Amino acid sequence: MSEGSRDQLYLALRLAALELQVEQGFNMPLIADDLFINFDDRRTAAGLKVLGELSCRVQIVSLTHHEHLVARRYGRACRSLPGRKTGW
């Protein structure tokens, strides 16, 4: 299994666990650091779409140093740290 596939499986398990928590009334944020570092473009687009849908129900904090990921954010308002340059 490739590193990208392993990361995708790990993300799916994290999201499934988060969904279970939300269903039980525990509204927990998802905090992710360089979540898509080993994803190809197709997997990144799919992952961002899923996070965009999830962000309607839970807070998502996504940390990355990749400008191209900031520019492809998941269709919702994103904030960067004050004084930091962003791609959008």
Describe the protein's architecture and organization.
With 88 residues, the chain is mainly alpha-helical. The protein has one domain. It contains three helices and two strands. The protein has a two-stranded parallel ribbon. The N and C termini lie far apart (34 Å).
Helix and strand layout, with pairings?
Layout: H1 3-23, E1 30-33, H2 41-54, E2 60-63, H3 67-71
Parallel strand pairs: 1-2
Count of discrete alpha- or pi-helical segments spanning 4 or more residues:
3
- Element string (H = helix, E = strand): HEHEH
Shape: globular
Largest sheet: 2 strands, parallel
Low-confidence stretches: none
Tell me the count of domains.
1
| Strand portion | 5-15%
Straight-line distance between termini: 34 Å
Rg from Cα: 13 Å
Output mean pLDDT: 79
Q: Would you tell me the structural class of the helices and strands?
A: mainly alpha
Quickly list its features.
single chain; 88 residues; mainly alpha; two-stranded parallel ribbon; 3 helices; 45% helix; 9% strand; globular
Compose a concise summary of this entry.
The protein is mainly alpha-helical and 88 residues long. It has helices at residues 3-23, 41-54, 67-71; strands at residues 30-33, 60-63. The chain contains 3 helices and 2 strands.
